[in-house]
Amino acid sequence: MTQPSKIQSRESYMHVRTLLAACVASLTIGVLSSASAQEEKSPRYVALDRARGLYSEPASGTATTAFLAIHRTSDFLLHPTCRELPKRGYAALCMNTRFVNNEAAVDWDRIALDVKAGVEFLRAQEGIEHVVLLGHSGGGPTLSFYQAVAENGLGFCQDSRKLVPCKDDLADLPAADGLILADAHPGVPVILLRSLNGAVLDETPGRFDPSLDPYRVENGYDSAGSSNYSPEFQERYFAAQSARMNRLIEVAEERMRAIRAGAGPYPDNDIFVIPHGGNPGPGPGGASQLHSLDTSVALRSTSRPRKLLKNDGSIVEEVVVSVSPAELDTKESTSAFDRGTKLLTLRSFLSTQAVRSRNSLDGIDHCSSNNSTICALASIEVPVLVAGMGGYLFIRDAEEEFEAAATDDKDLIYIEGATHGFSPCVACNPDPLAFSNSEKNLFDYVADWTSRRFGR
User: Fold this and answer.
1) Worst-scoring range by mean pLDDT, 277-286, 373-382, 417-426?
2) Smaller CB count within 10 Å for the chain: N or C?
3) Is 199:212 a contact under the CB 8 Å cutoff?
4) In Å, what is the CA distance from 214 to each residue of 217, 223, 247, 284, 287?
5) How far apart are the first and last CA of the chain?
6) pLDDT in tens, 100-142
């Protein structure tokens, strides 16, 4: 299977795969003999105000450390955290927010209240002494934002740079004891920024500047998977993506001011449509990220040697380069309405999807948004583990997250050949077993890292 490029569509796609696998596993457990079934504890469903969760405990003994996994919109009830970590002696709560499967409804800082309910639930469980947040994909900015506010108070999220400051009810959030980022992206706004087709003229569907069109052969595109964009084209394209995002922010803010002044069609919000911007969906594609098309773009590799956890369990230090192949379907998907169009509201765009920047590669004002893993990490002091998946596209992003982390106790590891959903990348190597231990290696490392700090 080709590895998708649009992260937000990829999130939905990979989480659906993960959940289906978990469902199959659960059904299998259900038909085991009674003796085998007794070795597993059934997850406990919990209602947490407007959020929901499944709480899993180890089969024997009492855990002293519990994990919390959540995403702003994806269904995480059967996330592998709650399957794999209880096997290793930990408790785990996998949660859905109030905005599950509803991107347009997201009001970013409300999610922190759902995380708060989860942390409070875990703190109240018998034997639990430590709580560790595990942010996978969009769970990275979700949980790093929560922890930054919990440690630093409202001053962090009401800073004058923020496009949308948080509300006062985020005061006094209970902090967690540690943060693990598993292929966490740098923030939803950065993903949208890098997914915008920078060639779009006047936000008009189908109108492109030919000199910026990433799907023109003369600009470096190759439909067979060998696209090669010159440094000059990359520089212009990254700048064009930022210019487009900055214009979208201006339009959205102007429309929101009109609503507040009573001049808008609705009293509190309105629809916001972004053509050729990518859209979450059931399959891959939907984005114009250059590093999903051109495997030589800098975002696919680390800037220096880093730790790589090999499939055999050994760890080496080398410049880590994504083994994910180029993607071949984005030209069609980014031009389609259903997969290439972002359908949001003004509130969900400004609070969750917007960020100011000069260019989409390395000129991003991360702290202009409250949805930013990188900005939040600069204000977090608890131990942090960053784990990047070697069969996906967040290689440099994971390294930047590690570099941004303010804590003295931080670690960075890459899992060889792992997809965004932790499974082996079968499209990355002719040998189907080349990366067969990817999920096991990730959770073994997470368990060991946690045990050395908090015990089980």
Assistant:
1) 277-286
2) N
3) yes
4) 8, 11, 20, 18, 11
5) 37
6) 999 999 999 999 999 999 999 999 999 999 999 999 999 999 9
Q: 139-179 pLDDT, tens per residue?
A: 999 999 999 999 999 999 999 999 999 999 999 999 999 99
Helical ranges in 276-372 per DSSP H:
290-293, 330-335, 337-340, 346-348
| Nearest Cα residue to 193 out of 395, 360, 366 | 360
- The one-letter code for the residue type at 1 is M
Residue 435 and residue 430: Cα distance in Å, rounded? 11
C-beta pairs of 236-240 under 8 Å, 24+ apart in sequence = 236/211, 236/212, 237/198, 237/199, 237/212, 237/290, 238/198, 238/290, 238/359, 238/360, 238/361, 238/363, 239/198, 239/358, 239/359, 240/198, 240/199, 240/209, 240/212
- Give the Cα separation of 386 and 132 in Å (integer): 13
Evaluate if pTM is beyond 0.85.
yes
Q: Angle, to 10 degrees, between the axis of helix 231-260 and the axis of helix 188-195?
A: 120
* Mean pLDDT for the chain overall: 90
Residue 453, pLDDT > 60, answer yes
Q: What confidence score (pLDDT) does residue 266 get? A: 86
Q: Are 414 and 387 in contact (CB under 8 A)?
A: yes
Q: Count the Cβ atoms, other than its own, within 10 Å of residue 266.
A: 10
Query: Which of 234-248, 286-300, 352-366 has the least mean pLDDT?
Result: 286-300
Q: Does residue 356 contact residue 368 with C-beta atoms inside 8 Å? A: yes
- Please state, in angstroms and rounded to a whole number, the distance separating the CA atoms of residues 187 and 366: 8
8 A C-beta contact, residue 175 and residue 151: yes
3-state DSSP assignment of residue 181? strand
CA gap 68, 420 in Å, rounded:
19
Half-sphere exposure of 394 (CA within 13 A, CB side): 38
3-class secondary structure, 418? strand
- Which letter, b or e, does each residue of 360-373 get, where b requires 16 or more Cβ atoms within 10 Å of its Cβ? bbeebbbbbbbbbb
Identify whether the C-beta of residue 414 lies closer than 8 Å to the C-beta of residue 309. yes
Contact 122, 70 (CB under 8 A): no
**How far is CA 293 from each of CA 1, 151, 270, 288, rounded to the nearest angstrom?**
16, 39, 34, 8
Q: How far apart are CA 265 and CA 270, in angstroms?
A: 8
pLDDT tens digit sequence for 70-92: 999 999 999 999 999 999 999 99
